[in-house]
Design goal:
Blueprint lengths: L8 H5 L19 H7 L18 H12 L2 H9 L3 H10 L3 E5 L2 H11 L7 E4 L9 H5 L3 E4 L11 H7 L4 E7 L8 H11 L2 E5 L7 E2 L2 E2 L6 E5 L12 E5 L2 H11 L24 H13 L2 H19 L5 E3 L12 E6 L5 H10 L4 E2 L25 H9 E5 L8 H21 L1
Parallel strand pairs: 2-3, 2-4, 4-5, 5-8
Antiparallel strand pairs: 1-9, 6-7, 8-9, 10-11, 11-13, 12-13
Helix pairs in contact: 3-11, 5-11, 6-10, 12-15
């Protein structure tokens, strides 16, 4: 990823480097025998300052509240078409059409509706993702068909997508996972050849590129989330983008609440108007305009810190680092690795969390193995995807919400913890 042309790289990279230690013993110890006993003499990390969600400054609050005072910001969508935020998203992503929604989940649902997914249709998707990738498919009465992931990149596999195609396939829903992406150009070419729609769930990859294009703009439709944990954090909302005017007309029909203008019934998924909870349209969209200006700089520092961290831990034999596709950038939504040691991942997680390494299991159960239960009439039969299962059983993720404000000293501490833990575990296995 190229450095943004802001001139602020040095300033941002040196913010918040100080990490406090506690000299006193830990107040509470987790029993893991000699392993914890040994490590406890090395680190007292109970005040390690784990990353948290991006903050909204008082200056930013003041800025969008001033704009909120101008009622035209709330009314513009009703009478004059796209909002300023939608216009700026189009300019940033170099796409023709954008529709801001009230959530990332709504964005995926609207994308599927625009693709005219109906009961009985099949949608090929990944088994490694959040549940909100799956539920919109089920809500429409369609059948999710799971294509296994690539064992090295953790992304949905192009070859497995091809193998899952049938005459019932109407769309492919890929997830640009962890701020990176699968082989999007090959997948797009395949979808074009078969006459099916490619939808990109880019909730985790806002501002990332595959080749020369942003993720979310390579497929026929892109869906984004602006939740507080995402790369463009505004506290909520989402967006649907496309370069296809016909698809966009359907997106508007299915997403807007202006039922008197509709040719087809859809959902009230638009993020507009004063009727939205806590005035969500003007507040979130104005904050989105502010955060959009910071996005490239934040992603640049996340990517640089990710490169540094990967280099620091690349020699740990018990870790398989996620491979990044050659044509894909990575902004580091989350840092993911696969444990190779014959140890239960919960034990490793317990050990690392004891030293306040902000680590967790992203997807301990692949979506393909979840029982859809009685909520949906279109129950699907759980299937086995061996690569997804192996990742789910052995994956650890490190949150990265503050990585763009932290320097190498901060990340080296993380690296030291991983090295010490794996050194001791390897000796005791």
């Amino acid at each position: 990823m190229e450095a943004p042309q802001t001139g602020k790289a040095q300033k941002v990279a040196t913010v918040g480097l100080t990490v406090k230690r506690k000299d006193e013993p830990l107040n509470r110890r987790v029993t893991m025998g000699a392993v914890l006993g040994h490590l406890g003499t090395i680190y007292h990390m109970s005040n390690f300052d784990p990353p948290d969600y991006p903050n909204i400054s008082s200056q930013e609050i003041a800025s969008y509240l001033v704009n909120l005072y101008d009622k035209r910001l709330a009314d513009r969508y009703y009478f004059n078409g796209p909002t300023a935020f939608e216009d700026e998203l189009c300019d940033y992503l170099n796409t023709s059409h954008c529709f801001v929604t009230n959530s990332g989940h709504a964005s995926i649902l609207i994308a599927l509706l625009a693709a005219e997914i109906q009961e009985g249709d099949e949608v090929i998707t990944t088994p490694i993702s959040w549940g909100q990738t799956l539920s919109p498919i089920l809500n429409l009465g369609a059948t999710p068909v799971f294509a296994d992931i690539d064992p090295d990149t953790f992304q949905i596999s192009f070859d497995n997508i091809v193998s899952k195609y049938t005459t019932k396939t109407k769309a492919v829903l890929v997830v640009n996972l962890y701020g990176s992406s699968p082989e999007l150009l090959k997948i797009k070419s395949f979808c074009d050849d078969k006459g099916i729609i490619l939808i990109e769930d880019s909730a985790q990859s806002m501002g990332c590129k595959y080749g020369s294009k942003f993720t979310g703009t390579i497929g026929h439709i892109g869906a984004y989330s602006f939740n507080s944990t995402k790369l463009l954090p505004v506290g909520g909302a989402g967006a649907v983008v496309t370069n296809d005017k016909n698809l966009f007309d359907k997106i508007i029909q299915y997403g807007s609440k202006s039922s008197h203008k509709k040719k087809a019934l859809g959902n009230n998924s638009v993020c507009d108007g004063l009727d939205a909870t806590f005035l969500c349209h003007p507040i979130l969209q104005e904050l989105g305009r502010i955060k959009l200006k910071e996005l490239d700089e934040m992603n640049y520092h996340r990517a640089e810190n990710m490169k540094f961290f990967r280099n620091e831990i690349k020699d740990i034999k018990g870790i398989h680092l996620q491979k990044i596709n050659d044509d894909s950038s990575q902004s580091l939504y989350m840092f993911s690795f696969k444990n190779l040691l014959p140890i239960k991942i919960d034990k490793l997680s317990q050990l690392l969390k004891h030293y306040n390494l902000p680590i967790f299991r992203y997807n301990p159960i692949p979506l393909c193995e979840i029982d859809s239960g009685s909520r949906w009439s279109n129950k699907f039969t759980p299937v086995f995807c061996p690569n997804a299962k192996l990742l789910a059983d052995n994956e650890m993720c490190i949150t990265s919400y503050k990585w763009y404000t932290k320097g190498q000293d901060y990340l080296r501490r993380y690296s030291d913890i991983l090295h010490k833990c794996y050194d001791i575990l390897e000796k005791r296995l």
